[in-house]
Amino acid sequence: MAAWARQKHLLQALGRDSPLLPRCTPTCVPFSSKAAASQKRAGAQSYPVINGDIPPVCRHVYEANARNSQLCGHRYAELINKIKQGGGESAILRHTQRNKKLLVRERLRMLLDDESFLELSPMAGLGLPYGDVPSAGCLTGVGKICGVWCVFISNDATVKGGTAYPISVKKQLRAQEIAIQNRLPTVYLVDSGGAFLPLQAELFPDKQHGGRTFYNEAIMSAMKIPQVAVVCGSCTAGGAYIPTMAEETVIVDKIGTIFLAGPPLVKAATGEDVSAENLGGAKLHSRVSGCVDHFASTEAEAYTCARHIISSLNFDPVPEDSSEYENPLYDANELTGLAPLNYKSTLNIKLILSRLLDGSRLLEFKADYGTTLVAGFASVEGNLVGIVANNGELTHDASLKGSHFVQLCNQRGIPLLFLQNTASQESVPTNVVKAEEQTNRLKAQAAMIAAVACASVPKITLVIGGCHGGESFAMCGRSFDPNFLFLWPNARVSLVDPHSASENSQWREQHHAHDAEENTKLKKLKKESTAFYSTARLWDDGIILPQDSRNVIGKCLRIIKQQKYKDFTYQTSPVFRMSKQENRHCGVVALGCQMALHCNSYLTEKWEAGICWKSSRK
Q: Taking CA 137 as the corner, what is the angle to CA 135 and CA 142, rounded to the nearest 5 degrees?
């Protein structure tokens, strides 16, 4: 009290009544957020228009790119059709006819609003060393439920019985990471047989393996990111922790079960015959153990209940801005001819920007300096964004320009959109002048890398061509935590550009072997650098067609915007589910509570590091 009295006396001596209010407080005239958005959009609509006309001299490059994009598009369509078949016809019949369950996409249609959702990494799990696991055995994405953007993680039991492969775990962890970065409620549709035991060494022991899913669930609950689960199938072994650690859980009668070990293991261990329903069915967990909170007679009722839960979260949906935004002045379908076949087939990046941005308008930053990097302010579907786009090699001047612009956007709270098309550089300079240039470039690129790494605003990366070498770090590659990262089908992801590898002097020196062996290595490099190889291993959040890019980017920006309307607070523990109940059916719950107790230090660490875009940026 004495300290407060001294502070009050000091404030009075300075002529102030409180530490927050000055002696003379100016009168502020309130204005609506809609009016502010309208004024901001009007400002963006006065930005200069980019010239997006394709020069006649570049027509042959455009046509070559278009032919390559057509081939990539056919491959894309083939893989999309393949993953939509799930685990195959027999698995689908078993799932729907014998087990009387809905298919995963039918479940999502009942859960989500009518608006289309953003699916993440649909091609993950194809062509892996242990075989094909379509969509990694689960669908993840971001969609609206009762007007609120939510992350969903839904097991597909037609694929390997819903068991978790290493790629399945990686995909679920990425979805949780997106939920944390963007502070999105998370809904789990659980229908899983647990871990695929033959590959247990690749999905159990390490930090980023299966157990991290449950750790993240506790962390997100403590961060006040709601966790909701619907048990619409088997929840066995590790899968049993997801519903029991969720804040609210719904279970479907007859088909939903939760247990660490199923009836066959109980029979082997104790000799007791017990049905799945009596061991861990809906009635037992809703009436006896208390492991779930809501009993649903049908799947349709369960998803209606889940929607009711989301509506009670006290989340304010992002207000829809009724103001109309401008469409680009140029045809988005022409982007297929602007998607580079290789780095040498790259056309001016402004031709692409003119087909992505509202009104084809860009307020360019340092237009005449470091011209191999284009930076500036623009709008995508009415959302203000900072553009950072490769237009050649990331030179010394371009790197300094990029560093300056990224820090500017971070200071103003403007999300960043990176259009990445980087070139691999010679690791060994051929003369003294090039060595000096490389040294200066390295220092400037380090500054840009640091600026990108430390920027706390949301970042979206779209790889439109090459993702090679160190320049990809400065352009917010996967290791720099972009909120979303997508590829065009023509994109290449590798340390060395396969098209220039054979021309590189160092490559030739290291490969004096026979031509046949060298060709084999080049073919391997080309195969392992494709966008389809990358997305199968979850090095990105999915492949998108060039003509769909504007729609996807606009949706990502709307998703990101939701956290600005929710205050960021955290507590030192998640919601505990019946932590003191002593019941023989509650072993999973007790273990889940013990896991959750370890989250305090993590929360403090992430809060200090600024893992989320602070709510102060409004």
A: 60
User: 47 near 362, Cβ under 8 Å?
Assistant: yes
Greatest Cα pair distance, the chain, in angstroms, is 88
- Please write the tens of the pLDDT for every residue from 374-399: 999 999 999 999 999 999 999 999 99
Please write the tens of the pLDDT for every residue from 1-44.
444 454 444 445 445 444 433 333 333 334 445 555 566 666 77
Please report which helix (H) or strand (E) contains residue 138, including its range: strand 138-145
Domains and CATH numbers, the chain: 89-317 (3.90.226.10), 332-561 (3.90.226.10)
Work out the angle at residue 63's Cα, subtended by the Cα atoms of residues 525 and 81, and round it to the nearest 5 degrees. 60
Instruction: Record the pTM.
Output: 0.86
Q: Are 487 and 539 in contact (CB under 8 A)?
A: no
How many CA within 13 A on the CB side of residue 380? 26
User: Which of 72, 138, 150 is CA-nearest to residue 566?
Assistant: 150
For residue 321, give the 3-state DSSP assignment.
coil
Pairing between β-strand 138-145 and β-strand 118-120 as defined by DSSP bridges: antiparallel
Question: Would you say residue 506 has pLDDT above 60?
Answer: no
Burial status of residue 300 (CB atoms within 10 A of its CB: 0-12, 13-18, 19 or more): middle
Measured distance CA(142)–CA(150) in Å, rounded: 6
